[in-house]
TrEMBL record:
The gene is Gipc3. It comes from Corythaixoides concolor. Gene3D superfamilies: 2.30.42.10. InterPro entries: GH2_GIPC, GIPC1-3_GH1, GIPC1/2/3, PDZ, PDZ_sf. This is GIPC3 protein. Residues 1-44 are annotated as: Disordered.
C-alpha cells in the first residue's frame, strides 16, 4: 500500500489579500494616537491543507476549503476526476474498511483521509425470521447509508455476502439513496417476518491486499474518537468549519454512552449525532428541557421520551 511522505492537514500562511484579511490596496492605515503603539497588522488566516488518497490505490492529492462532508467529497472527487457520488465513505489514517477509523464530523489536523469508492453491486435475499436483523446502520452525510456493524449470530451474520462497509442501495428494488441512516433502520425493522426481501448492496472497491476479507466491527471504547487535547477541524452542516480543541475525556465517554443508546433504540451509530446530543444535555437543566431542545434541532428523529431520559442519565448523572 502506498504511504505519503507528508501526512495530515497543514496550516500554511497565506497572502493576506487571498485569505480575506488585511486592508484594501491603496487605503492608508489610520494614524495611531500620539504616544500609543501602532496597531499590529492582522495575522493571515492559516490555510488548512489535508492529504488524501483513494483507499484502493491512487497518487496522493491535497484538498482544502471545505466546510462539510458533502464539500469534502466534492473536493476529493475533483482532484481524482471522479463523481462525488462514487464516494461511499472516508476513513482516517487507514485504507482498510475500519469502522473505528470512520470520518465523522471532526478531522484532526494531522489526519490523512482515505476515500472508499463504489465497487461491485450485489443482491442478497433475506428472510426475516426474528425481529432484529443484526445490522447497525450509519450514513456518510451525503446520501449513502451503509453497514457499520454486524451482530454475531444474527440473521445477517449468516449471509456471507453481506459485509461491514457495504452501502445499502435498495430494499426490494425501492432505492434508498438519499435516505438518512435512521430511515433505513426503520424500514428494515418494519419489514414483515417470514417474508423474504431483497437487499441491493454496493461494496467498497478493494485493493488486492483487501480482496477476500469480510471485515467486522466489534465494540471498542475508542470507536469514533478524536484524540483529546489536539486541535481538530469541526465540520458543520450549516456555517463554516471551525478549529476546536478535541473533546474532553468526559465528553468522549458521554458520547460513547449516547452512541450505544442510539444503537440499542434505533439500530444506528453516529458519533457526531451523539456528540450533538451530549452538548444539548450539558446545557439543559432537566429531561423535559432536553426533550424540547432535541425536538427543536433534531425533530426529524422523533426520539421517544424514554430514550431522551436515558440520554439525560448517561450525560448528566455521572457528572453529578
Amino acid at each position: 500500500m502506498r504511504r505519503a511522505g507528508r501526512r495530515g492537514g497543514q496550516a500554511q500562511e497565506g497572502n493576506p489579500m487571498e485569505n480575506g484579511v488585511g486592508q484594501e490596496l491603496g487605503t492608508p492605515e489610520p494614524p495611531a494616537a500620539e504616544g500609543t503603539p501602532a496597531p499590529r497588522p492582522p495575522r493571515a488566516r492559516p490555510r488548512l491543507v489535508f492529504h488524501t488518497q483513494l483507499a484502493h490505490g491512487s497518487p496522493t492529492a491535497s484538498i482544502e476549503g471545505f466546510t462539510n462532508v458533502k464539500e469534502l467529497y466534492a473536493k476529493i472527487a475533483e482532484v481524482f476526476g471522479i463523481s462525488p457520488t462514487e464516494i461511499l465513505f472516508c476513513t482516517l489514517n487507514t485504507h482498510k474498511v475500519d469502522m473505528q477509523k470512520l470520518l465523522g464530523g471532526q478531522i484532526g489536523l494531522e489526519d490523512f483521509i482515505f476515500a472508499h469508492v463504489r465497487g461491485e453491486t450485489k443482491e442478497v435475499e433475506v428472510t426475516k425470521t426474528e425481529d432484529a436483523l443484526g445490522l447497525t446502520i450509519t450514513d456518510n452525510g451525503a446520501g449513502y447509508a451503509f453497514i457499520k456493524r454486524i451482530k454475531e449470530g444474527s440473521i445477517i451474520n449468516r449471509i456471507q455476502a453481506v459485509c461491514v462497509g457495504d452501502s445499502i442501495e435498495a430494499i426490494n428494488d425501492h432505492t434508498i439513496v438519499g435516505c438518512r441512516h435512521y430511515e433505513v433502520a426503520r424500514m428494515l425493522r418494519e419489514l414483515p417476518r417470514a417474508q423474504p426481501f431483497t437487499l441491493r448492496l454496493v461494496q467498497p472497491r478493494k485493493a488486492f491486499d483487501m480482496i477476500g476479507q469480510r471485515t467486522r466491527s466489534s465494540k471498542s471504547p475508542g470507536e469514533g474518537r478524536v484524540a483529546s487535547g489536539k486541535e481538530t477541524l469541526r465540520l458543520r452542516a450549516q456555517g463554516p468549519a471551525m478549529l476546536e480543541e478535541g473533546p474532553s475525556a468526559f465528553e468522549e465517554e458521554a458520547a460513547r454512552r449516547v452512541d450505544d443508546l442510539l444503537e440499542s433504540y434505533m439500530g444506528i451509530r453516529d458519533s457526531e449525532l451523539a456528540s450533538t446530543m451530549v452538548e444539548a444535555a450539558k446545557t439543559s437543566p432537566g429531561v423535559a428541557q432536553l426533550a424540547r431542545g432535541l425536538d427543536s434541532v433534531l425533530g426529524e428523529f422523533a426520539f421517544p421520551q424514554e430514550f431522551v431520559a436515558e440520554v439525560w442519565a448517561a450525560v448528566c448523572q455521572p457528572k453529578e
